[in-house]
Amino acid sequence: MATASSRDISNIQHLLSQYVTQLVDGCGSPSCRESQCHTGRRNLTPAHQPIRKYTVRSARAIALALVGGPHSQTHLCQYCTRSRLDTNAEVQSKTNERRYDTGSFTQLISQTPSVRKSCSRTNHFDIPAGDNDLEHYLSTLQPLLDHVDPNTSHPNIRSASDASRRISACILKCLADVPIDITASGGAVHACIAYGYAYPPPGAPVPGAFANPSDPKISRFLDYLHHGPANALLAAALKALAMRVHLEEKLAFLDHPLYVNESEHSTLNSEQPPRDVRGTLDMLIWTLSHTLDTERSPTLMMWTKKLFLSHWDGSSLIRRDTTAYGALVWMQRCSLETCCEESVRLCTLATALDEVHVAETWLHRPRTASEAQHLLSFPAVFDVTERLGYFRTINHLRMRKAHSLAVKAVMLRRQFVSDVDDGELGDQLEHKETPYLLLQVSRTNILQDTFDQLWQRRASELKRPLRVRLGEVDALDIGQDLGGVQIEFFNLLCRELFAEAAQIFTTNVATGLSYFRPGSLQPLYMFETVGLLLALAIYNGITIPVSFPRAFYNILINGQSSNIPLAPRNHIRLASRSNPMDAIKDGIDDGWPQEHSSLIYILQQQDTDLGLEWSFPMEANGYRLYVTRLQGDRLDHDDEVVGVDHSGPTDGAREVHGGVETLDWPGWRFADAPSRPVGRDQLGDYVNTYAWWLAYGCVRPQWQAFMRGFYRGIDREDLALFTPAELKSVVEGSTHLDIDELRRAARHEGFDDDLTYIDTFWDIASRWPEETQKHLLKFVTAAERVPVGGASSITFIVRPGVAEDPEALPTSSTCFGTLTLPIYPSAEVLERKLLLAIEYGMEGFGTG
């Protein structure tokens, strides 16, 4: 008699577990039509009809019948790739189930321990029986899977090198057993996993992924990733990585004596042998990057994504001691190392998660050294448009809370202190009860009015929705803000801020990019207010017409540049992404192209004495200074003295009469100090320091003031959802307008079914040069840039107008993004009137 192999038993257990999961929890996909899935039954049933919710016991009975039938996989839900219950689900269901019928054989079978275990949806690391090799590798992970309490006197903590060696050995063992012949279908499998399919849907390929979903290699590859004998071992390795990373974070948070490297250990006077417990993930990345070939590396990423979906419980908070957390840590780090987020993206997450719920849990997420971390802390698994949606929802919830608190304050005062005269409460009452952050500014004095009204605003006010009243001094009620005035306000404000007369920014004529003006004589509080204004634009979702280099957004996101040493002692590789100075240097090629080329040349002259000195040029206010170190290596305090060496050429720049100590530049204090030569072994340090000086050092006081204002208006951790390039797109938008995309997104209201006149309008606009098309966009919406979502995210409405005067021009309402278009007798008249309206309406709010 034939006996079932361990592989057959494992497959049966997986099928039972899968069926129980989909019967009880469902897959959560709106596209599901599977009758044996809770979600599919809900989608197929009319909204007014109730459906039965299976208990776990009932689901076991149905699963046994399905698996025991001739076609055991017929009713598997293609969307159900993970369990939606936590690891205590089986224990809870045992206590919550009602009493069962002891006369029913099916219910008796469903209650037996063996069936319970076979149908269990909890995550175990079950190695197939008899596979001694895999069992050996799993046993090596046990020291990393055991809970370690760092608060004990002598915690048994493995060194980072030992932990990395154990985890990497298990990962390499898993990959070595993958059949090579099925990995050729990796691209299709990658798309299948990313879109949340357990198997390719019959007759409908994954969008844009592959043309032949019936290819047997695809199913074999997916089967191996889900049912392969090494699946449990890789899951255990990822869990070990998760627990190790969490342990290192706890040690760092506790400032534990073991959290030092060997060179620092001598200062501890400890009897324990020196061992470095830091950097397990770094070592693991290095080991695998030097070991895996081009075929195994993508396989590991696909397998990791598959395991994440299998072990994820559907929550936006991920426990740090789970396989799902280890998979996220690995995917996020790989995206940073390879600069390729496409390989780790999981498109299925956006459909499985509720946007508002994700935003709410982000706002109330646990903080440092907690036992869970939010899913948005791993932004690489989301598309940038998805992250932008979460970001704006988070800000909207903050606005709604601040707005509701102001409304409640009004209601409480009227209810309990109605006899108090408003005048007795003064400004405090106004601050508490105004539901918006209201600015009333005139066009003729917009910069000063804005600074006066924003200066020393309370934090609670800054979180409210922004509203602007924009007009002349005697007509501030011209524009009642419903959206368009905000855009107009920031457009005018940016024009003033970036003007040469403001002495705040300087614009490179060659690149067109702007940056802080070195040695600016403007008071630092102005830079603080500028930072707050940029934060308000981002917070309120306004795209503004600015152009900054990538280094600007690098510094804005990491927020650590003020702590970078002026002359770092350690040599840093040019391509390293782990050091913040390298992130700045990687971004100076667009803002300082000539200096970038010179620094690259210097790095190529490692064996040449170039005669360089540790001094950096600073041209400001008619002077040219050569800044050097005075004492120590840091320039991160407002009152720190900066050394200046006059040995360099002046080339016509003015001499400083009375010494550099007499220079009174906001945020700077100078003193004479000689420079020293740069050694051949210091070229890497010199290049990093020079790049840091260009992007941060020469405008350090302005940066520090700007950051103080910026982080008053926006949460620092929210910006971590974006890369510097993505944040640049969010802030600046795009200067390119796709008129065809705008045409498809536009709404036409009030026209008859015959849209010939509308087609004529768009045909005219399509023939215009792009600059004129952007003028049309500004005329209708006040926007000078296209937001990150493209022209399809712009509100553009066209309505017919009745013109009693044949000379009447088209008009617009930028508040509502509406163009009122009179009916003209010919296309030539329509085009002429449009161009006139756009020309007259280029400045000012209201009608054109």
TrEMBL record:
Residues 458-848 form the HECT domain. This is HECT-type E3 ubiquitin transferase. One of its GO terms (biological process) is protein polyubiquitination. SUPFAM superfamilies: Hect, E3 ligase catalytic domain. Keywords: Transferase, Ubl conjugation pathway. Its EC number is 2.3.2.26. Coiled coil: none annotated. InterPro entries: AZUL (IPR032353), AZUL_sf (IPR042556), E3A/B/C-like (IPR044611), HECT_dom (IPR000569), Hect_E3_ubiquitin_ligase (IPR035983). It comes from Baudoinia panamericana (strain UAMH 10762) (Angels' share fungus). GO terms for molecular function: ubiquitin protein ligase activity. It holds the Pfam family HECT. It catalyses: S-ubiquitinyl-[E2 ubiquitin-conjugating enzyme]-L-cysteine + [acceptor protein]-L-lysine = [E2 ubiquitin-conjugating enzyme]-L-cysteine + N(6)-ubiquitinyl-[acceptor protein]-L-lysine. The active site is at C815 (glycyl thioester intermediate). It is an enzyme of class 2 (transferase).
